[in-house]
């Protein structure tokens, strides 16, 4: 590039007005700390509603904040109640068979699944902020709890101990969830990225479905392991236990449930078909077994279920002993999974109806719901997507639909338990398979593949980890890779070279804008990340290499010698003391090479810290600090022209 090209690149306006880079207003350290804490823990500013209110009004608002039912309860009407009754009865028809099925998935007595569909919804109706969330046991948390506890305790031979550990794990899950809400630490669950969850859910859905082969094929001796290979090996190793009666019944109900699910997906107004199908399957299969005495021909049944409401279980909680570490670990993992699912489901349906769900209040509600549940013979519960979707489509208006569902389950517990005696396990297996299929989201996985290949690797690791190793290890691997990605972004910040858009004073990334041209004598770089101790070595090495490449290119093409290194700091949102030292060291290195360092638009905290550290006023001199890259280049070129 010769001089004519340089003139074509950017016209120098000698009379261009320069804008001063202003320092941020002075704030005390306490004020800064308050702002930082507020933005970290109270980004939603929950106290703003109390400003300017009388003492009485503040008490009312406080009560409504703690118990959302007090906010919408006084305005509740008969019209809303009619809609909630329909929705509540509809989700009850789904919750009853699912509750029984998911309890068996967690290696717990089926009755515990119904207990968990009675008390927790009542607690959530008082404390929860979502109008659409339908509360109860969920497949993934059930699977994880059952598999983790079974590693140390046999649910068949030590069923009392297993039940105690399940309730204690539920207590710790609720305690952890509520603590996150009270301490406003909900950002911790954000480490479960969308890619991680999609891969994990798909893998868990496959594992859950494979586990149901025991019931669908009528196998008695089945592996206790959760991996793909052990399950498949167990299925084909025990072919002599396959029961054709069980297989035929399972196939028929599975096809029936999948058809009803397909109909409801294609025609959402017919949601009631798939919502009522599981209960209808239970009724029909129970009648069939009773009428033909199928239990005498190899079809296993649930057996007798205890009548009555939830017995208290606080005396069963185990806070000491050799299994304490296990229950804390199980509670932590199932708490995170159920909390993530519940909040995600609640926000999804809130967005559809254009209302807000308070994430921290949801954590408290779900946490307290599980703490209370652990004392009333319940295991981990949350808002399930399938039940919440039915609740939404059935026209639920408030959380009263959960109360209606709970009352329906209560009636079932009191009077209808004998009817489930002949319910075949194969029907429950078909219900579980149909429910978890929706967790395999292939379109979302394909979308992630198109957008971000690294995220897809995270998804794949979560998926393969779950089906090949175990549920908890697969989740741990995916979270670890996600954290590694974040660390790489911190330690290897993006830094790009800028070029001038011909005929303007605009500078853009030369790799993104092909028309952008490098100016002779200038190395213009944009740092697009916070600068801290973790990345200054990389930045120093990268900038040094760019300077060497630029000097070699100028020598080869006989350009003007490199004289200025311009760093655009517009995207640098934060800096620490190591970052400040980096600029001072870079300035000294460039001075030795007769190169001038120019800083462009350091913002807020960055500007303030650089000013405080610049005792000799070398770094922040007026001729080394500009508002835009265009102004910096224009001033330098005009000064050069005046000196010629």
TrEMBL record:
The segment(s) forming the STAS domain are 512-636
Name the UniProt record assigns to this protein: Sulfate transporter 3.3
Q: Name one GO cellular component term.
A: membrane
One Pfam family, short name:
Sulfate_transp
Bilayer topology annotation: Multi-pass membrane protein
Among CDD domains, the record links this protein to: STAS_SulP_like_sulfate_transporter
Q: Known PANTHER family for this protein? A: SULFATE TRANSPORTER
| Alphabetical keyword list | Membrane, Transmembrane, Transmembrane helix, Transport
Where does the sequence pass through the membrane?
A: 108-126, 161-183, 195-222, 242-259, 271-292, 363-386, 398-420, 426-449, 456-484
Instruction: Look up and give the organism this protein is from.
Output: Heracleum sosnowskyi
The GO terms this record gives for MF are:
secondary active sulfate transmembrane transporter activity
InterPro entries, A to Z: S04_transporter_CS, SLC26A/SulP_dom, SLC26A/SulP_fam, STAS_dom, STAS_dom_sf
Q: Where in the cell is it found?
A: Membrane
Gene3D superfamilies to which the protein is assigned, alphabetical: STAS domain
């Amino acid at each position: 590039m010769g001089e004519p090209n340089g003139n074509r690149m950017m016209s120098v306006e000698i009379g261009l007005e320069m804008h001063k880079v202003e320092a941020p207003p002075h704030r005390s350290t306490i004020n800064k700390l308050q702002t930082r804490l507020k933005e970290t823990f109270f980004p939603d500013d929950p106290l703003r509603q109390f400003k300017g209110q009388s003492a009485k009004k503040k008490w009312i608002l406080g009560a409504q904040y703690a118990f959302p039912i007090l906010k919408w309860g006084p305005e509740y009407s008969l019209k809303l109640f009619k809609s909630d009754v329909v929705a509540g009865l509809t989700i009850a028809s789904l919750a009853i068979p699912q509750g029984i099925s998911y309890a068996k998935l967690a290696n717990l007595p089926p009755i515990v699944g119904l207990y968990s569909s009675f008390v927790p919804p009542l607690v959530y109706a008082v404390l929860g902020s979502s109008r659409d969330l339908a509360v109860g046991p969920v497949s993934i948390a059930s699977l994880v709890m059952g598999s983790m506890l079974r590693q140390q305790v046999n649910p068949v031979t030590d069923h009392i101990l297993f039940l105690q550990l399940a309730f204690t794990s539920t207590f710790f899950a609720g305690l952890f969830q509520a603590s996150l809400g009270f301490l406003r630490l909900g950002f911790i669950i954000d480490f479960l990225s969308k890619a991680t969850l999609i891969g994990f859910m798909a893998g868990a859905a496959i594992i859950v479905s494979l586990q149901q082969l025991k019931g669908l094929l009528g196998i008695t001796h089945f592996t206790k392991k959760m991996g793909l290979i052990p399950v498949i090996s167990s299925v084909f190793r025990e072919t002599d236990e396959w029961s054709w009666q069980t297989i035929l019944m399972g196939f028929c109900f599975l096809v029936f449930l999948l058809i009803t699910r397909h109909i409801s997906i294609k025609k959402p107004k017919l949601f009631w078909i798939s919502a009522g199908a599981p209960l209808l399957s239970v009724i029909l299969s129970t009648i069939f077994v009773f009428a033909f005495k199928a239990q005498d021909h190899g079809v296993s049944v649930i057996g007798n279920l205890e009548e009555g409401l939830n017995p208290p279980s606080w005396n069963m909680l185990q806070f000491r002993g050799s299994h304490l570490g296990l229950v804390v670990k199980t509670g932590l993992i199932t708490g995170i999974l159920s909390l993530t699912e519940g909040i995600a489901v609640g926000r999804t349906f809130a967005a559809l109806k254009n209302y807000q769900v308070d994430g921290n209040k949801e954590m408290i509600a779900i946490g307290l719901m599980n703490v209370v549940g652990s004392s009333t013979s319940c295991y981990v519960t949350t808002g399930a997507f399938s039940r919440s979707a039915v609740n939404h489509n059935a026209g639920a208006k408030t959380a009263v639909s959960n109360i209606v569902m709970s009352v329906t389950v209560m009636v079932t517990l009191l009077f209808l338990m004998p009817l489930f005696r002949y319910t075949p396990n194969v029907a429950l297996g078909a219900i579980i398979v149909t429910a978890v299929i929706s967790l395999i989201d292939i379109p979302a996985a394909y979308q992630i593949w198109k957008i971000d290949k690294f995220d897809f690797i995270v998804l794949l690791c979560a998926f393969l980890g779950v089906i090949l190793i175990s549920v908890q290890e697969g989740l741990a691997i995916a979270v670890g890779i996600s954290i590694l990605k974040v660390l790489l972004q911190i330690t290897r910040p993006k830094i790009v070279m800028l070029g001038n858009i011909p005929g303007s004073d605009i500078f853009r990334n030369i790799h993104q804008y092909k028309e952008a041209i490098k100016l002779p004598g200038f190395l213009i770089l944009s740092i697009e990340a916070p600068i801290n101790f973790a990345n200054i070595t990389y930045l120093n090495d990268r900038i040094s290499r760019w300077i060497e490449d630029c000097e070699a290119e100028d020598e080869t093409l006989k350009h003007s010698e490199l004289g200025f290194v311009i760093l655009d700091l517009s995207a640098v949102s934060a800096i620490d003391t190591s970052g400040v030292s980096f600029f001072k060291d870079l300035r000294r290195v460039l001075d030795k090479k007769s190169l001038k360092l120019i800083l462009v638009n350091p913002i807020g905290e960055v500007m303030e810290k650089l000013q405080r550290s610049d005792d000799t006023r070398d770094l922040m001199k007026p001729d080394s600090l500009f508002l835009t890259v265009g102004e910096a280049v224009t001033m330098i070129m005009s000064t050069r022209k005046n000196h010629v």
